[in-house]
Amino acid sequence: LVSRKVKKEDTVLDIDGVRIxxxxxxxIIAGPCSIESEEQMEQTAxxxxxxxxxxxxxxxxxxxxxxxGFQGMGVDGLILGGRVARANKMLFVTEVMDTRDVEVVAExxxxxxxxxxxxxxxxxxxxxxxxxxxxxxxxxxxxxxxEWLYAAEYILSEGNNEVILCERGIRTFEKWTRNTLDxxxxxxxxxxxxxxxxxxxxxxxxxxxxxxxxxxAALAVGADGIHIEVHPSPATALSxxxxxxxxxxxxxxxxxxxxxxxxxxxx
Length: 267
Ligand code: PEP
Ligand code: MN
Prior knowledge:
Helix content is 34%, strand content 15%. By secondary structure, the chain is of the alpha/beta class. The chain has one domain: TIM Barrel (Alpha-Beta Barrel), CATH 3.20.20. The strands form 2 sheets. Strands 3-4-5-6-7-8-9-10 form an 8-stranded parallel β-barrel, surrounded by 7 helices. α1 runs parallel beside α2 and α4 packs across α5. The protein is globular and about 45 Å long. It starts with 12 loop residues before the first strand and ends in a 10-residue tail after the last helix. The chain binds phosphoenolpyruvate (PEP) and manganese (II) ion (MN). Phosphoenolpyruvate (PEP) binds next to loops. Phosphoenolpyruvate binds next to loops. This is 3-deoxy-7-phosphoheptulonate synthase/chorismate mutase. It comes from Deinococcus radiopugnans ATCC 19172.
């Protein structure tokens, strides 16, 4: 179902007027790694909305390496994220980690995110496949392109055709970056499937100084958008403080990417 052999033309999602994929201009999904407080979310959403960002991200359920790390605000975070996004006329995307939470996450989020660590969670893939919300599907930490596309197939096979593929870097022997951004996977997923494909530069790089060149490269190979973490005060963030951009950092990112974010001719 995900294959171009089955459907030749690009799938273009239209989520409350925000178009993703095909001839739509590239989209930016931005926001903090974790939802931490009302002030943090309001400041971030207001700032990003002012920059023209239409989709706000923020984790309420966090897949942390250590069980003692901040695990997210849960339902309170969902409510907060949904409210702040709406107040700023943005869509809200957040991760769902457990089949039991799909219903409540779908109540507050416009897009359900399946994280890298759950790409192989087939029960969760089936459950979001039955939800009436678009799904942002991250590539697993060490998933092949084929495994990633089969994970998307699980979602479509349950009747949900609204899937956005997201390359977020894979594990390699390289240590100077947190993961290795696989640009071939972006080009291949665009070629082999009709689904929109975006690139999460934050988790791919794991360091701020590579976000601009990686985002440019992603768009150059055909990505339909960029996913990036932005926090009012990355140094004090409860997760991912090495790689989130502050507002001044996002100003620079926005400026650098602007020439590549133009509306395609004729649209
Ligand atoms: C995230 O986007 O919040 C996240 C945890 O990313 P990933 O699943 O790609 O590691
Ligand atoms: Mn993060």
